[in-house]
Amino acid sequence: MAAITIPAAEDIVGPTPGQRLRKRIIGHRGVMIGAVILAIIVLMALLAPLLAPHDPYTQNLGNRIVPPVWTDGGSWVHPLGTDGLGRDYLSRLMYGAQISLFIGFATALISGVIGTVMGVAAGYFGGRVDLVVTFLITCRLSMPVILVSLAVVALVGSSLTVVVMVLGVLLWDRYAVVMRSATMQVRSLDYVAAASAAGCSTWRILVSEILPNVMNPLIVVATLEVAHAVLLEAALSFLGLGVQPPLPSWGLMISEGKDYLLFEAWLITIPGICLFALLLAINLLGDGVRDVTAPENRS
Amino acid sequence: GKADDTLNIAWDVEVPNANMYFDTSRNGVIIAHHVWDALVWRDPATGDFKPALATAWNVVNDKTIELEIRQGVKFHNGDPMTADDVVYTYNYLAQPDNGILNRNFSNWIAKAEKVGDNKVRITAKDTTPLMMLYITELGIYPEKYYKEVGPDGMGLKPVGTGPYKITAVEPGKRLEFEAFADYYDSPKGKPSIKKIVQRTIPEMNTQVVELASGRLDWIWRVPQDQAERLEKSGRVQIINADTFRVGYLALNAAGGPEDSPLRKQKVRQAINHAIDVEGIVKNLVRGSSQVIHSACYPEQFGCTDDVKKYPYDPAKAKALLAEAGYPNGFNTTLYAYRDRPQNEAMLSNLAAVGIKADLRYGQYAATRDALRKGEVPIASLTWGSNSVPDVDAILPIFFGGLPDDLAKDTEVQGWLKDAASTLDQDKRKALYKQALQKIAEQAYWVPTFTYTTNYAISNTLDFKPTADEIPRFWTAKWK
Amino acid sequence: MLIYTLKRLVVALLVALTISLISFGLLYLSGDPATTIAGESANQAAIEAIREQYGFNRPLYEQYFAWVGRALQGDFGTSFYFKVPVTDLIFERLPVTLGLGLSAIAFAIVLSIPLGVLAARYPNSIVDRLALTISVMGQAMPSFWFALLLIMVFSFMYPLLPSSGSETWVHFIMPTVVLGYYATPAIMRLTRTGMLEVLGADYIRTARAKGLRPRVVLFKHALRNAIIPVVSLSAVQLGFMLGGSIVVETIFALHGTGYLAWESIRRYDLPTVQAILLVFSLIYIVLTFLADLLNAWLDPRIRVG
Amino acid sequence: MADTTIPPVLETRDLHCTFQVRQGMFKPKKPLHAVNGISLKVHKGEVLGLVGESGCGKSTFARILLGLQKPTQGDVLIDGQATSAFTRKQIARRIQPIFQDPYSSLNPRKTIGTIITLPLSVHGVGDPASWRGTVERMMDLCGLPKRVYDSYPNQLSGGQRQRVAIARALVMQPEVVICDEPTSALDVSVQSQILNLLQDLRAELGLTYVLISHNLAVVEHMATSVAVMYLGRIVEQADTDTLYHAPKHPYTEALLASVLTPEPGKGVPDAQLGATFPNPINPPPGCTFHTRCPKAMDVCRKVAPRPLIVDGAEVECHLHDDSIRSAA
Amino acid sequence: MAALLEVENLRVDIPLGAGDLHAVRGISFQVDRGETLCIVGESGCGKSLTSLSLMDLLPPKARRSADRLAFDGIDLAKVAPSAMSDIRGNRMAMIFQEPMTSLNPAYTIGNQLEEALLRHRNVSGREARERAVHLLEKVGITGAASRLGQYPHQLSGGLRQRVMIAMALMCGPELILADEPTTALDVTIQAQILHLMIELQKEFGMGMILITHDLGIVARVADKVAVMYAGQIVESGTVNEVFENPMHPYTQGLLRCIPVPGKTRRGEPLGSIPGIVPSLIGEMKGCAFANRCPYTFEACLTTDVPLFETGSNPNAGRGYRCLLSEQQCIENAKEVA
Ligand SMILES: Nc1ncnc2c1ncn2[C@@H]1O[C@H](COP(=O)(O)OP(=O)(O)OP(=O)(O)O)[C@@H](O)[C@H]1O
Ligand SMILES: Nc1ncnc2c1ncn2[C@@H]1O[C@H](COP(=O)(O)OP(=O)(O)OP(=O)(O)O)[C@@H](O)[C@H]1O
Ligand SMILES: [Mg+2]
Ligand SMILES: [Mg+2]
After folding, report:
1. What is the pLDDT of residue C43?
2. What sequence ranges are listed for the domain ABC transporter (chain D) (predicted)?
3. D26, C304: Cβ pair inside 8 Å?
């Protein structure tokens, strides 16, 4: 009974975590839909200078409020018509994508850094650090973001930078909350104890043991916060305190289209739908990533 | 609606209270005109002064006027209106520490005294050319009641002698007016509509929807595009009416950094040439808005169009800029607080001649603060002259050396001062003309256009607006 | 329990203090409010007088401590704009906002909990898809846009509902839907995941092993446990609605605190803005406290130590 | 026992560790004495088995030995030197852990190679180029194929993961290895592999083990001496034969009686300990075991027993305290 | 007379993305009243799914099939779900592994105990309460009446498991399924609980299926044993036969792995089974144990091995699933000892 080949038991090596994740992402409908929409929007934003049929800032007061091509009076010169100052709506939408995406990502980056540092510190060190961070979170949560950002923007004066900074400084709460609990969970795991017992410095433990393992929730929160920031900027713009014209953010376009709601509804519906699609895509993506990385989905 | 003889109107701003001397807003002025009568009434159509609570008057000298007070007029609470009430009101207004906000019409008063049973003498601090005009704006308060309830009480339960009395005040939310049954035989005429209910609705779309669905009868300040389309829908009537408000770009000609391009006359003139006011008015503002060339509302006393004009001419603008040493233009900032589309249009006009301006869009107060600190290169502003039909309500404020004076032109300041201290109307006119010509020549401003207001009213309502932006509901009727 | 309440009180006080400091610094550092109060046509003298009258020319910290001192006695000062005590102003308008918030959260709960439960009970079914769609849409729809669309459809094209005012409950339908829809996704999701988790729990298997009817298992054993985090979330969402009410109240012309806050910001009515920020944060803290109590009551592990 | 002139590799002196725990949201915090005065000596080459019920403080004790938890009182000495004078890094060179759960003790984001290399890179041993060789030798020693060097933990079976954990613990060649229930998460067939490996490595590398386990059969098989823990204290300690053949403490007796060996027909013994496990926050007065002790006397309810040496075993029980018995 | 529970060729399949997971692959056994069957095997071999499939409590996506699945003559494979739920908890009861999580934290144990009786019997609340107190006393809980108002989190693990036992007994079931009832407990408590279960089973004359991975427990508790490996029963028989004459290489291997105080020599290497359990996903050919078996020969890799019946008493169900001859097996076993 010697010369037979038995597959070595140890040979059963499954896919790496990365491979499995990729496979699950590909298999997840929400993620794919979200990713495709988002990719289209991002492409639109990046390629705006090449694709846009007109300059988004060139006005033509004699050619105001041209309806989109599919309605009476529309033409292919301005496929989505023109706005109240005769600017090409499609071109503005494309450049608007740049602004809205920039706001979303820049804000998420700023607040992400603040929130993650706070959350990880609280979760890892516990004790007084945790008390302070929890207190700050409570303070932050008890102030309505929109109210505070309105106040600040109204007082400081609104501009792209101000909006991004203000939202960035305000939207860290969810990061902090999620990172705190994720860190607490990871921190109690044995591999952290093992690293500690191996003599790793606190810094090294935080960076190489904790951070990589709280990445999943971090990504989920980050995507959702991008959506949150875009939405808030739209609300600020709606109330007249978002980015400054002639920069075309989608929120601002909705706000400008507001005056035409009842009679030229497309002026508000088109950017509204774009914004909706963007938020939908980001949310689908975020939810999907949450699903895909959720522990109950491991099998 | 017509059915319940109630006129439902909406404003977009909250009315803090109904005490006319403690509210400087447009709405306060409107309320004041309905609830309080002044001694004299100025006919908005002709500009003539007519007897109201005073039956006759006599200008004694430069600073003094005597008035005969009408008999048998009742306040809304039933008390009779007497000369004592008049004296009390004027003296109250003359007190520096009374806390009232609306001082423009009252800070000329030195004192008032009773000089006969029904005769009152009012003395001014200085020569006051517009004294009569101011008197028409000062409603008479009931002495007894006001002493009793104070300013706050007055704000919540106002009492006057006007054609409408206020029956309910919910600060910021709604006001209810009722036609005053005992209204005297005033030149204003008796009110026709029984009740007026005012509500605050901040969102214009909501206002329009409420109007279209019959829950409102009267709204105003409807954007031009929306107004045109509403009119076309036939659901409501639209009236486009003039106002005293004019728009302008204030150029910081004297302040700012030493090398500020705006200190150069040529640059300012270039800006004047660069802006296509005509195009903006024709395509964007529309209605009956007119292009203006001087720093005042054309119908105001003292206003003249006989000044240097700057037709739209980008090429010339560029040439002027080049002459001034800015062949490639320059970067600057444009402050603005309303009418975003118009400002964006001007921004693009400026950009076309090489002036790249950032738009700093903010609150009025913030803009004005910055302006007074000299931080603002160009501000896009408007001025409504408090509905006063005289350039005295505009020129001294912006060119008379007050904080809003960016030109700081001592010559102009001198002329304006002279004009303010004489009662000789021709002389005033000449002085104002001189000032306006210099202002235009120096291009301290870019005067743009007059503002108009769109009133949207229900088809059953008969309403005539006036240029001073004071709707007079006592003249409104159901059709 | 007493100690716990006291601790929460101290935290609440500290939060209030921090927030008052933030709001104070924020608002006062940003410029001179006197110009605003004076209004468009005021002259320099009037502005000076106001500056003097309100004490804007005193050092900031002095103003702050004076303010805190008065606030501790329940006096938040007088509204620059309305010239009435801010406290009166806020309490007059709070009922509208709270009413709106409560009806909105009720709407959200009524919509999302049954859907969440069904979605968890029948994962990947049509109900689940529907619930998912509703929640994803809710997350992606800017509330002002939604509000305007509702007005366009239900007040303008088909005039069924009033678009402004707060006289009757009919006036609250659209605002409630808009505001409530905003909170729906979060609550529905939490219900769904909570239910999914609970349905997979060992004690549910135990209940089924006892032969209990599916209905009893679902509602008595599962929902009771899944609902606990939902309670907290609902309270938090109600707190968030205070912020959301700004937009909704503005559009539907509801004269609540949210709209007051926004208008006060525009009018530089600093005492009002400060007081509202403070009141909002206190409401939030009270809400979370109540949620904790309710949780404790629902969860014997907390109630019975 | 061992040569007294050489200090034990590991010694604890009156070690205490108290946590402040909250029982309910509305309750104030109360002290929980997880480790309540443990004095132990472990000599070089020994295997000390530590047994006791769940929650009696075994893991806490292990964490203190590893320097992961600060004791509230008392000292840990390595080779006679107090560890309070050491940095964590210095402790790490001498004492290494093996944890119970091979699933949570490996960072899922790192490859096996990185995980085992970690101690080397932390301590900067040798030049980085040599690390891979060292690690592969260690892997080989622990029965891991070289192929898994670049694999991730989730690609390995439980037994293999535990081997990785062992390799990581041993790559720095520590003196003492603390094994906290190293096999209780594993199936029997794998458990025996790991136990054999631990035995082999001990012989090869001259290691000293502290082996924590609730499986008395495993402890008997592995340990040279055994300590029995109850509610934060060592109630009996002796070398393995003595303890298993002549248990002194009633708790040790009960534990031994409860061991179910695969011998059919013997039935299940009734250890006659009550059903209630005392709450560690409110430990019973006197001897903490008296509530469950079938041989409890009056004195046990009031007076805590003192440590005694009886027939080569250290035991804390009034039954063996002559002075008390004669008084009774 | 037929046995209380008869299972023939029970299969449980779970469809997964990568293919079907054949968790239980055709197992057969019988349990009679008053008899204890122990199912033993390593983690993941399908023990829990077997017991859950008997109770019809499988996870929604799992599929069950069997040639025969009869409880007291009732064909469980055919009864309606509602009829099944009438049997469940009533005539068949189950005790789970995790006492910490198997009780609903939101309700008092009294409530949870009474609920079972109120569901199946037409009794008043008071009667249910009395029965609950009676059973709590029976399982050795002191102060039973006062315990009814307590919540699960107020009880220790051992007590909770006693409550679980009492709950299973509420309706006086004829068959008890216990899935690793003591794995989460300390050794001393484990002994107590097992002791208790045996006593109660004797007293009530119930049939019992006890699932465990601990051979020690099997040896002490079982009447009959079924050793499972990779979803199949690889060896079965009475407890004495299996422990004294293990036939299957797997059983032999398992027994060699365990240190036994006094028998195994301290410090000597233990026996071990190399390798790991094969994946149960997809079709499997040959003997599932082939890749770990020291006696594997070519046929093992290709032939599906049936369960060979053996032994003197056919009712004892002695059988083993190995291609080696009986003689060979016995010799191998001797080597072990
Ligand atoms: N960080 C901590 N904070 C509060 N209490 C703790 C902490 N760590 C442990 N405890 C408590 O200390 C006691 C001892 O815990 P420990 O983990 O040392 O027990 P153990 O003997 O290892 O138990 P097991 O056999 O279950 O692993 C327990 O009651 C536990 O609840
Ligand atoms: N819901 C499920 N979905 C997918 N696979 C499952 C599910 N439940 C069990 N399995 C798989 O079925 C096989 C048998 O599981 P089962 O729970 O019966 O094992 P077990 O013998 O009870 O193991 P343990 O000793 O760990 O409890 C395992 O491979 C397991 O992974
Ligand atoms: Mg432990
Ligand atoms: Mg199992």
Report:
1. 64
2. 10-256
3. no
pLDDT value of position A11: 47
Residue C233 falls inside a structural domain: yes
E contacts of A1 (beta carbons < 8 Å): 295-298
The token pair at A196 is: 């500690």
Q: Going by CATH, does the domain composed of A27-54+68-298 fall within 1.10.10.60?
A: no
Each residue of E222-256: pLDDT tens digit? Answer: 999 999 998 999 999 999 888 888 889 999 888 88
SS in 3 state form for E58-96? CCCCCEEECCEEEECCEECCCCCHHHHHHHECCCEEEEC
pTM, two decimal places: 0.87
Spans of all domains in chain D:
10-327
Nearest CA to ligand 1 atom 26: D54
Residues of E in contact with A7 (CB under 8 A): 291
Given a cut of 80, whether residue D150 has pLDDT beyond it is yes
Residue type, B138: L
Domain count of chain C?
Answer: 1
A-C contacts at Cβ under 8 angstroms: 124
Q: Any CB–CB contact under 8 A between C169 and chain D?
A: no
- Where residue D286 falls (left for φ over 0; alpha for ψ -120 to 50; beta otherwise) is left
Which residue, among A145, A146, A115, has the nearest Cα to A133 in the 3D structure? Answer: A115
Nearest CA in chain C to D23: C305
Q: Kindly identify which residue of chain A lies nearest to residue B365, measuring between CA atoms.
A: A155
Residues B221, B11 contacting (CB under 8 angstroms): no
Best of E38, E49, E229 for a ligand 2 pocket test (most atoms within 8 Å of beta carbon): E49
Residue whose CA is at the smallest distance from ligand 1 atom 29: D55
Is some CB atom of chain E closer than 8 A to the CB atom of C59? no
Note whether E297 contacts A: Cβ–Cβ < 8 A.
Answer: yes
The predicted-structure confidence for A215-238, as pLDDT tens digits, reads as follows 888 988 998 899 889 988 888 888
Q: How many other C-beta atoms lie within 10 A of the C-beta of residue E335?
A: 8
**Per-residue pLDDT for B142 more than 90?**
yes
Mean pLDDT of C5-20: 84
- CA D297, D302, D307, D308 dihedral sign is negative
Nearest Cα neighbor of D252 from D297, D220, D284, D299 is D220
Which of D170, D173, D176 minimizes the C-alpha distance to D41?
D176
Ligand 2, atom 25: nearest CA belongs to which residue? Answer: E43
Residues of A in contact with E276 (CB under 8 A): 9-10, 12
Residues 6+ apart with CB under 8 A from D323: none
Q: Does residue C292 belong to any structural domain of this protein?
A: no
Domain that holds residue C211: 93-269
Cα separations in angstroms, A146 against A232, C140, C149: 7, 17, 21
Reported confidence tier of residue D328, pLDDT bands at 50, 70, 90 = low
Q: Between chains, do D26 and C292 touch, taking CB under 8 Å as contact?
A: no
Three-class secondary structure of residue D249 per DSSP? coil
pLDDT in tens, B243-253: 889 999 999 98
Closest chain A CA to residue D107: A191
Distance from CA of D22 to the nearest CA of C (A): 9
Contact E218 D221 (CB under 8 A): no
Shortest distance between the Cα of A98 and any Cα of chain C, in A, equals: 18
